[in-house]
Amino acid sequence: MNNDYHVPVLLEECLEALDIKENGAYVDVTFGGGGHSNKILEKLGEAGHLIGFDQDADAARNVPDDERFHFAHSNYKHLKRFLRLFGFKKVDGILADLGVSSHQLDVAERGFSFRFEADLDMRMNQQADKTAIDIINDYSAEELQRVFGQYGEVRNSKTLAQRIVQERQRYTIQTSTQFLNILGPLIRGQRNRYLAQVFQALRIEVNDEINSIRTFLEESAEVLPVGGKLVVISYHSLEDRVVKNFLKFGNFEGKPEKDFYGNILKPFKMLTRKPILPTPEEIQLNPKSRSAKLRVAVKI
Predict the structure, then answer these.
(1) Of these four, 70, 79, 105, 252, which has the most CB atoms within 10 Å of its CB?
(2) Which domains does the chain have, with CATH numbers?
(3) Are 67 and 201 in contact (CB under 8 A)?
(4) pLDDT tens column, 165-203
């Protein structure tokens, strides 16, 4: 495991939730530094299999030399396609640790963080076309307001959008420093919280994260057999709402659809009435885990 890349969050809780069978087949759709994957491999026998997904080329450097491991350099929304490619129709359990990795945040030139001077890139897949620079300089004021309001829950999203449009008439907004100069007078409340919300909104839009999560959840329901486990860690309310609604109601609107007999039509049964949270000890050791919420479901 590459400890500098990403410390695995809620590791023991995830392993317990997956309830790993020695000769089963499992998927880690957010491979990253291999923290969760390597522990899953330790619990698998010789006939076990683990498929790891990651769209970030940097993650490929962490792939273990283990014939039981299969790596898909891809977004997890293509879950079903790559499982077929590797010869798996069904798998016994799926783990997703959503959001951005510590590595992506800590490498300045990736442009994910307001802590560093860098071009505003924010692509998880470095082969993708659209960057945060494109969004800031090309989107209309209405589109920018939608992004910051919907994905960052930024309270003054309209004012922020108008200010960006005004400033970009004078110059191309390209770097984090330029962007922070624009944001400075608009910050409301705690500075770091406000900036985190704005940068989160851009990152989600660049990577189309919410739609990817939705597609992934739907495909998970197709590749898990009855009794198969789905284990998902989310880090902000938007992600968690999507996950919770789908696991609880089988849709993303959060409205139960019932059959003729009044039973809710859904592919999963929630095993966690409330999300599992990191302990104070884990948060102290790994502060980036503080907003994590773990939800577990079983295919029915």
Answers:
(1) 79
(2) 11-103+209-299 (3.40.50.150), 108-207 (1.10.150.170)
(3) no
(4) 999 999 999 999 999 999 999 998 999 999 999 999 999
